[in-house]
Amino acid sequence: MPADSSSLVPHNPNSGALAWRVSAAVLGLSLIVLFLAWPYQEWEFGYRMSVLGGWYKWVTKYPDWMFCLFVPAITGGVVWLRQGELRGIPWQGDWLGVLPLVLGLFLYWLGFKANTGYPAFLAIQFLLAGFILLIGGRKWMRALFFPWLFLFFAWPMQPLEDSMASPLRPRTAAMTATLLTLLGTPAENEGSALQSAPDAAEGLDRGAVFSLDVDAKCSGINSLFALMMIAALLGYFALRSVRSRLMLFIAAVPLAVAGNIIRLLLLAFGSIWFGSDIAVGKRIGDHQEMSLYHTIAGFAVFGVALAGMFALCWVFEGREMTKNLSLHHQSKSPLAAWPVIPLPRRTLAQAILILVLAATTFGICAATDTSYLVARAGVSLHMPLQVDGYQGREIEVQAREKKALDEGVKLVRFGYLNEKNRKVIASVILSGHLKRSLHRPEVCLPGQGWTIVETRPVNVPMAEGQSFDATYLRIFIDQIDEDGHRVRQRGVNLYWYVGSDDTTCASHYEHVAQTYLHAIFRNLNHRWAMVSIFIPVEDTDVPGPEGLFAEFNALEDARAFASQLMPFLTNPAKRELGAVE
Fold first, then answer.
1. Is 287 domain-assigned?
2. Rounded-to-5 percentages of helix, strand, coil across the chain
């Protein structure tokens, strides 16, 4: 008998009801056990929580990601609006759904082993895709493709946003400076810093009228994912053409930039009209207090972006928008008790397979050793008093710096000086016993008032042909001197990470990736250390090599110093791996 000959058998409502109930129970049980009940990872809270429990606590902690809370409800609403269409699609499961199902369960185990939630977010997506395809079939997958894809916005992908938003900030500052100059308010930018231009005739220093920074915390660019979510939802409801929807979704990026330019213009002119304290807010120590005007100006990002989105919708399909919106109304016809299931026995077998795979994954996770034994540190905290002609002494770490460190993190800092009066500040920060207890310099430095002008990888050569990669940051900070003049202090910062087995990483996310990969595949839990070399550079307008190449020379000195310091830190006695008691 052909494999699908059972479709010729008259449909048995009782069998269909049983298959529907079993499938719904399997999906609900699998999601509850794997993602709501099982203690999955420690997140940032020091104890293991479930995937959805940790997700909720994380997104409510960071305001920029709170929009994620609404995504599951919006996704459910989109599915509910399509009940009329879905009711007419029979359940004709495709065994191809086993592939995303197995991939999702494998990702779930990877995240559990590595103690990180990002693989679990992907696991939810693949598990849902596998369930829809395996139970419902390809027609169901096509019908639910948009809500399934839209659910991705529920998961806070911080590394992805950083990689998208960081390059946009200096470009936004540059475009705003150009626009301000065209409007008759001379301005200049360096990196993400936007400042009023100096005016010798009026006796005004650079930044005397206004000084802004498109930093990560208050940048409208950080709302990029929320705007992309709104663009996707608006395009789905208001547009019919796939091309128009895609163009609107892509347009969310330049619209976010345009909104942030308007925000910066409001802050710049507000500083001119009302003063910096009212327009921007007061800086108290390392903390920037945001004024009411600053908060209101932040809504300009969404105002401009939303206006641009609706304008683009009108350009793309004009008056058809009203008709498009009416296509998504809920059908008023009575709903069936359960969907049409031509092959209930096969559907039951597919549902049971899902249950078996989920139970197997649960058993594997339960048997997985997740005891967190951290390897010994790969560096020594005893820094030398002399490094290649530099004489050094220890600099006492301030109390506020110690307070900002996570539990168990250790910091040692030395200042060095050579006969040419070159100053070097070397710091070693040793992580605690928890993963990701080291903060990113790209976040810490702006929090202390520094502006990052340039970021790029550099190679540091060592003896015997060896070398390692580091990250170079060109930075500056503006301060007011005793005479009330704005003084700029520049600096060159070189940093890199050293793992427990002499592994080195140039950047924060690279060391995070190595942490998880080595924990999964090598059962090695690094105790990372971050080494930082800082060289101050005088801000000078003197022509010639001393003025033009001051930062270049400082970078070369930092590379040479790092090359000589590294052997002192990676003491062979510390390289032997072993668990910390």
1. yes
2. 55, 15, 30
**Are both 124 and 72 inside the same structural domain?**
yes
Query: Is residue 443 domain-resident?
Result: yes
DSSP string for residues in 71-123: HHHHHHHHHHHTHHHHHTS-----GGGHHHHHHHHHHHHHHHHHT-SHHHHHH
Give domain status of residue 148, yes or no: yes
Q: What is the residue range of 96's domain?
A: 15-155+340-367
Per-position DSSP letters for 332-398, written without gaps between them: -SPPPSS---S-HHHHHHHHHHHHHHHHHHHHHHHHS-----PBPPSS-S---SEETTEEEEE-PPP
Contacts for 334 with CB less than 8 Å, ≥ 6 apart: none
| Cβ neighbours, 10 Å, residue 542 | 10
Per residue in 26-65, pLDDT (tens digit) is 888 888 988 988 888 876 666 778 899 889 988 888 877 8
Per-residue tokens: 151: 């659910």
- Residue 329: burial class (beta carbons within 10 Å; 0-12, 13-18, 19+): exposed
| Backbone Cα Rg of the chain | 29
260-280 confidence digits (pLDDT tens): 889 889 988 988 888 888 888
CB 27 within 8 A of CB 127: no
Q: What are phi and psi of 41, to 5 degrees?
A: -150, 170
Q: Is the dihedral of CA 256, 257, 259, 263 positive or negative?
A: positive
pLDDT band at 217 (very low <50, low <70, confident <90, very high): low
The tally of domains found in the chain comes to 3
pLDDT for 544 beyond 50: no
Confidence of residue 524 (pLDDT cuts 50, 70, 90): confident
Under 8 Å between Cβ of 301 and 257: no
Residue 560 has pLDDT above 90, yes or no: yes
Q: CA 159, 164, 169 angle in degrees (round to 5)?
A: 120
Query: 0.85 cut: is pTM over it?
Result: no
Q: What are phi and psi of 470, to 5 degrees?
A: -140, 170
Q: Are residues 242 and 353 in the same domain?
A: no
Q: Which tokens is 101 given?
A: 């199902």
Sign of CA dihedral 271, 274, 280, 283: positive
